[in-house]
């Protein structure tokens, strides 16, 4: 346990010093490697644990690499400019923060992926918000809140399907159980965003018409611009692999860039690698590209290696056994289930381990207390899945910062659903114990 605490302190120090988080994760990895050698573990065994982490995450690395390319290609072909154009025309007279939360919730429930929702519609909404002069910290918090609802609740979500499979439960039963905490938490969060959105009565709408003209002058826009979006959504809903879905959308965006935006092969390649740039635009449409994700990719490689060596040193299982000793009631069981998921998200830097380990390890405890396993699913989902982006060194938080171009300290305080849902979950079962 001491080794885990020291490792977290090293990671936290890098954040305190405002260094890239992968410095801290790398330092923690070196510390655990040295501690393992000192404790008698062989170098070959530790090396195997370290290498196994990134190898197990190769699909995630492919997807995140392609997200940077997807964003820049959607800018180049006109998808993001068109969606911004329509968003400015339709939503300029409405409570934009409130509707952004609702839109992101709908998109994430449809796609089943928080990162995918942020990388597509989240980028669009943030761009529209910038043009309207809306507070970016509040807006980015609303975007993140809505996005991770899909990870928790969507039948298409890999996280939801994983926790359902690990616990050997029924998806429909899980959704019904999870709605008991979601509905009040969602209404509370929506009310907060409505109030915050209503507190901006004097937004700067004077430049919106100019922005609309600028978009029209710089891009050929029309419904054809939505083809890459439609292809992506359709592929995901057909349950095609995420990387293949994104690749299909990228190819369609490249084709539209040539046919309608008069882009050359060199411009397409430059946008895909270095990101989209258009200095003549007085609107926030730029960025993306493969290289924009390099920090995220380095972090994921180190984070998965870190998780691998934690497992190799048997630190995770021993920590869970110690935490489980204090379980003495049904309420303490569901509390511990959620907290163990959150702690694992914190120390392993990724979401999957925070689902698999408590999903497997806590099963026997639920049988012992004669408690339905739907409560285990709810505790992992409400406390673990919903808070992954609230841990600054977690892969999800790092991707949010990279894709939206905001700091963790900007969006985290305003991602209300990510806080309200765990609070509602703990409170409702404190008032009325689970049956």
TrEMBL record:
Entries under Pfam families matching the protein: Na_H_antiporter (PF03553)
Cellular localization per UniProt: Cell membrane
UniProt KW keywords: Antiport, Cell membrane, Membrane, Transmembrane, Transmembrane helix, Transport
A single MF term (Gene Ontology): antiporter activity
Domain of life according to the entry: Bacteria
Gene Ontology CC terms: plasma membrane
UniProt keyword Cytoplasm, yes or no: no
Residues passing through the membrane, by range: 21-41, 61-84, 96-126, 132-150, 182-200, 220-238, 250-276, 296-316, 383-405, 411-429
Membrane topology: Multi-pass membrane protein
Residue span(s) of domain Na+/H+ antiporter NhaC-like C-terminal: 146-426
Classification via InterPro entries: Na/H_Antiport_NhaC-like_C, NhaC_Na-H+_Antiporter
Family: Belongs to the NhaC Na(+)/H(+) (TC 2.A.35) antiporter family.
Protein name: Na(+)/H(+) antiporter NhaC
Gene: nhaC
């Amino acid at each position: 346990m001491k080794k885990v605490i020291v490792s977290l302190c090293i990671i936290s120090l890098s954040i305190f010093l405002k260094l890239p988080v992968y410095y801290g994760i790398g330092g923690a990895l070196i510390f655990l490697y040295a501690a393992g050698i000192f404790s008698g573990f062989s170098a070959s065994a530790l090396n195997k644990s370290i290498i196994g982490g990134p190898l197990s995450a190769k699909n995630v690395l492919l997807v995140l690499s392609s997200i940077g390319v997807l964003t820049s290609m959607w800018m180049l072909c006109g998808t993001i400019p068109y969606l911004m154009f329509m968003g400015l025309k339709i939503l300029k007279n409405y409570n934009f923060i409130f509707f952004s939360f609702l839109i992101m919730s709908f998109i994430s429930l449809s796609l089943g992926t928080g990162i995918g929702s942020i990388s597509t519609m989240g980028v669009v909404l943030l761009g529209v918000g910038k043009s309207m002069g809306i507070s970016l910290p509040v807006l980015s918090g609303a975007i993140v809140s809505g996005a991770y609802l899909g990870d928790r609740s969507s039948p298409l979500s890999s996280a939801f399907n994983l926790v359902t499979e690990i616990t050997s439960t029924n998806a429909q039963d899980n959704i019904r159980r999870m709605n008991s905490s979601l509905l009040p938490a969602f209404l509370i969060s929506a009310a907060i965003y409505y109030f915050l959105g209503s507190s901006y009565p004097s937004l700067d709408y004077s430049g919106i018409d100019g922005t609309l003209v600028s978009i029209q002058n710089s891009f050929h826009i029309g419904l054809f611009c939505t083809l890459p979006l439609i292809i992506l959504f359709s592929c995901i809903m057909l349950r095609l692999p995420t990387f293949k879905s994104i690749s299909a959308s990228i190819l369609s965006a490249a084709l539209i860039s040539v046919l309608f935006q008069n882009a050359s092969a060199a411009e397409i390649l430059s946008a895909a690698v270095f990101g989209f740039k258009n200095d003549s635009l007085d609107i926030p449409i730029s960025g993306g590209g493969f290289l924009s994700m390099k920090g995220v990719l380095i972090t994921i490689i180190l984070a998965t290696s870190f998780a691998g060596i934690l497992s190799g040193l048997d630190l995770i299982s021993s920590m869970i056994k110690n935490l489980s000793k204090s379980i003495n009631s049904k309420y303490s069981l569901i509390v511990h289930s959620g907290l163990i998921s959150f702690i694992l998200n914190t120390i392993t830097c990724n979401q999957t381990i925070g689902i698999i380990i408590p999903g497997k390890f806590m099963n026997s405890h639920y049988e012992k207390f004669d408690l339905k396993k739907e409560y285990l699913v709810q505790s992992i989902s409400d406390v673990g899945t919903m808070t992954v982006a609230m841990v600054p060194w977690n892969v999800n938080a790092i991707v949010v910062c990279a894709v939206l171009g905001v700091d963790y300290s900007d969006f985290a305080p305003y991602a209300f659903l990510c806080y309200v849902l765990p609070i509602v979950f703990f409170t409702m079962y404190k008032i009325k114990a689970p049956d």
